[in-house]
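Continuing from the previous page of notes. For each protein in this section, the sequence appears first, followed by its structure tokens. Read the first protein now.
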Amino acid sequence: MKNLLCRLGFHKPDERGFVVVKKQKGKHKWQRNYRICKRCGKLIGIVSFRKDKDEI
């Protein structure tokens, strides 16, 4: 059963958790990183990870 807040659209994103979804259509392959909700486990939005030039 979903949480009441998630039913209303107020998801709580998990800061550390994300899911990598890999897809393929013909020869074209791609992957997306999605943030997940702590309460219901639904995929919320796309996450991008960027590295600063100082970290490299």
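Done with the first. The second protein uses the same format. Note its length before scrolling.
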Amino acid sequence: MKKIEGMLALALLLAGCAQPAVQNVNENVVTVGRSNSVAPLADIVDHIELIPLETGLPFLLGVDPMLTLSDDSFVLTDTRTGRVLAFNRDGSFRCRVGVKGRGPGEYPMILSSQVAADGSVTVFSYPDKVLFYGADGEFVREEHREDIGTQSCLVPEGMLVYFGYGSGRPGRAALMGDDGSRTDFLPTSAKIINMTPNTPVFTFYRDTVYFTDTYNPVVYAYKDGKIREEVTFDFGKTAIGEDFYHYSDPYEATNSIMQSPIGFSLVRRYLKDDRYQFLEEFCQKGEEVTFHYGFESDGTWKWFSFGKGVDNPFSGMMQDLYGNSLYFLMNSEVLAGKDHGMGGDLAQLRALVSNPEVLDRVTPDDNPVVARLYLK
């Protein structure tokens, strides 16, 4: 059964000293709606292509790998198994990108990765490695950086690093310049347990980097050495209240949301291009986890869901927005279960699948299936 982790992962690091509040409060606030229907999404999808990723013992993937696209490949980063694997766009295995280890050109513990349009891959590995690989997976070079945080990405000015709340650094993000300079962003005095996201923080479109901020409902945009608030999502009753950031004890702060009778919501994924914005919301109430979704087109937000349960092949699986297509990574064990063939709440999407015969061939031990939703 697909594993959904409550509160993602928590690392016990406390926040640093008090800093000025964030300036330029965002006026772009989106009130998040709720829907029990997948129909709004189905209305903007022309058709769906299912692409099984080739399965083989040397290139098996674990639970919930991260999918990133280049112009001609899928790159899967699996932090649990310590593997970065590249597949061709037809799903056939292309190459293994680097190898887990402690020697030169090897990554001891993957934190995140970044894929260029030409298929070359940069892997960020604890504690200080930035490793560069070609589109063929071959090692090119490595660098050692002073602090690569929770997740990092390369930008023209150097390296943008995300630390999050409770990291002990001066800010929740920083720009590490190629000239050795450092610019800290998003200072905070909040005493909160540090959260390590199990999904990519950074997404990219053209010359802008967008990033989420764990507990914070604000999505930020980075460009030319500066950040700005892109959009704030108002989750209403399940929004994390302002008092959360003012507890003197980080454990009390965590308990305040974990024990909330109505639950709490986080921005799990944010994707944007020149036509659409997509939100994946993570909502936890006790041990119950649900996902809600929204998209914006022509200035209007619409809301949808994939049903009440998390054990369907779409919930929590949104990955990338690339080339006018929205990508999900579907768990093979869920797809092979008795409840899916994509019926029930997902019937409207099932009707759009151009190659439904794939559903009959999936076994529980297969690698995931990429779902490419061609947007109208």
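What the second structure shows: The chain has five helices and 29 strands. Residues 25 and 135 are 41 Å apart (CA to CA). We return to this in next week's lecture.
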